[in-house]
Amino acid sequence: MSFDLAAIRAQFPILSRRIGNAPLHYLDNAATAQVPEFVLDAVHRFETTSRANVLRGVHRLAEEATAAYAAARHTVAHYLNVPAAEIVFTGGTTGAINLVARSYGELLAPGDEIVISELEHHSNIVPWQLLRDRRGVVLKVLPVRDDGSLNLDGLEEIVTAKCRLIAVTHASNVTGGVTDLGSIRAAAKAVGARILLDGAQRAPHGPIDVPALGVDFYAFSGHKAFAPHGIGALWARRALLEEMPPFMGGGEMIRTVTMERTAYAPPPHKFEAGTPPVAQAIGLGAALDWLMKLDWPAISGHEMRLTQRVLDGLPSRVRVIGPTGLQQRMPVISFDVAGIHPHDICQLLDADGVAMRGGHHCAQPLMDRLGLAGTVRASFALYNSEEDVQALLGGLDRAIHRLARS
Amino acid sequence: MTELYQDAIVALAKSATRAGRLQPADASLTRDNPLCGDRVTLDIRLDGARIAELAHRVRGCLLCEAAASVIGAQAIGKTAADIEAAERGVRALLETGRKDPALWPGLESFSPVHDYASRHTCVLLPFETLRELLSQAAGRNTP
After folding, report:
1. What is the mean pLDDT of residues A11-39?
2. Which residues of A have a catalytic role annotated?
3. Is A300 helix (H, G, I), strand (E, B) or coil?
């Protein structure tokens, strides 16, 4: 296999649009990646030929919709190298983590401990704070070093015998740094704690051998992985899903309902109350099916070359937050421009067609820890190009020249 | 785009009129913009119902700094009602792009922000913070 950037880019109609007089340089993939035409086609095909509710009807459309929904689940499972019955469709990573907090959280007792980190996205902080307030569990936090890396030196002191769950990011949405799972696995195993990984930033960059990660929960979003908004997935082993109570009641998640009691459907349906986002799931399946056919060593090399070009080309007044090299990182680069707010940088770069994210990236505790209002973040996907890097670096130079006070 | 960062706005931000902290202050308030992490801290001293002295510290974007700088230049001697009127004026400018004749000097520079809805809160945050601070100082409930 090989990697044909032009052919990849041709699949994404939005990449040919212009922002004013400039071509679009889309570098906000860590927030939302773009959708290829064949994913839109798959969604359109379903909606125009087989749209129906799933797991309910016996008519032809219902059968086709149910089969397509099940096929999408199989594709997600294949992407993560796990059984399909262990994939729960959710609205995204946030929905998946909230599911665990609401459901697995019911199995926890007051005084049980959950460990998160300062590096987390709000979606891996707030659900645990809500659980703490609801159930009386204790929330403990792994610290971050001044350079934005996760400090695991005190792991054994923080992860005590009372720890029931360590919930951390697989790769930071701010720094791009990939979490060192070895020591976290060891600490969790020593006390019998489970591990949840927020895979939102890892999932768009190739299939994941989740069983090899040695974790208990894995969550990711479709919209960062070239699929529609509003779909994502949670993986957990069947036995764990069976142990967990349902967190939301309604149709599809039941086996039998009487006015007195309800028997629940087995996982994963136990956690999918109500009519699911069928078309979005089909879109996710189409996107992941495509990703599995690509040459990931070649694509990773491409993404890392672009990352290195940015790291090498940033002006001297810029400080990179997180990894400054290519080891243990995703193609996500955050930086602080001394004396200039990220929104001002991003607003000026928008005039050059460069779409980047500036702000706290839903990681306010990390920004507080680093003493920053926010960072400028460039995040690459497989369709980004050298021209995107040049537009970023050129626009950044112009923005700094315009806004610098010294 | 460059009109958003026109010289007048950049100059307002750089002038940083009454930037800093006021010690001692009669009242202080810090408010965040959850969208972008902008943070404004205002300190005031009051002479009756009027602002006798004011200082602002902004950890925010250029638009937020520039708006705070306008407040620093214009708010001394003003009452809570004056500040509410000023906030209404700047809010109307952002929402409609039209300049009210009573608009504080300097605020007309913000008219290009009208086209950038996501940046309205950057300009409004210092005004909202000051209104709330005065309301708290007067012992009134905020709306």
Report:
1. 97
2. 362
3. helix
Confirm or reject contact between B106 and chain A (CB < 8 A).
Answer: no
> Cβ atoms within 10 A of the Cβ of B28, count?
18
CB contact under 8 A, B38 and A358: no
CA atoms of A87 and A270, how far apart (whole Å): 11
Cβ contact (<8 Å) for A403 and B10? Answer: yes
Q: For A167-172, what is the mean pLDDT? A: 98
* Residue indicated by tokens 């605020």: B107
Q: What does the pLDDT average to over A235-255? A: 94
Tracing tokens 């994941």 back to the chain, one arrives at: A208
- Put simply, whether B11 touches A (Cβ < 8 Å) is no
What ipTM goes with this model? 0.80
What local confidence, expressed as pLDDT, does residue B143 receive?
Answer: 46
**What DSSP line would sit under A264-321, residue for residue?**
EPPTTGGG--SS--HHHHHHHHHHHHHHTTS-HHHHHHHHHHHHHHHHHHS-TTEEEE
Nearest CA-CA distance, residue B135 and chain A, Å: 27
**Given pLDDT bands bounded at 50, 70 and 90, which one contains residue A246?**
very high
Ranges A212-216, A217-221, B106-110: which has the least confidence: B106-110
